[in-house]
Amino acid sequence: MKKVLIAEDSSVIQNLAKKILEFQNFEIHAVKNGQQVLDELAKAEFDIILLDINMPVMDGMDCARAVRALADKKKAAIPMIAITGNARNYSMDDFKAAGFNDFLAKPLNFDSLVSQVKALTE
């Protein structure tokens, strides 16, 4: 079973994404900010990370850069998808520069969520 780490400070979006992906046989771990992502990565392996861009403590852009800079090469290469409510503020180039493989705009399209997660974890 593929393990997904979701970082999203909205519990509504977190719970919806969790239900949708669990229905697709993914194992979900959910946290509220980028620092918690790094804490989780320090103790477990994941197949993909979904990162909200706007979060307290550490936002998605800083978190993505921190993941890509990890000493553990396997963990530094984990696929990451940005989740953003203000895609206008960033271009795909900005997301790529931070280390993201792809991005999803809010409100989340759950078909896109499932297809992108599947494409990056196969």
TrEMBL record:
Keyword Phosphoprotein recorded: yes
Residues found modified as 4-aspartylphosphate: 52
Xref: CDD domains: REC_hyHK_CKI1_RcsC-like
A biological process term (GO) from this entry: phosphorelay signal transduction system
UniProt xrefs under InterPro entries: Bact_response_regulator, CheY-like_superfamily, Sig_transdc_resp-reg_receiver
Keywords of this entry: Phosphoprotein
Response regulatory domain span: 3-121
Highest taxon in the source lineage: Bacteria
PROSITE patterns on file: RESPONSE_REGULATORY
Xref: SMART domains: REC (SM00448)
Cross-referenced Pfam families: Response_reg (PF00072)
Protein name per the record: Response regulator
Species, as recorded: Aquirufa antheringensis
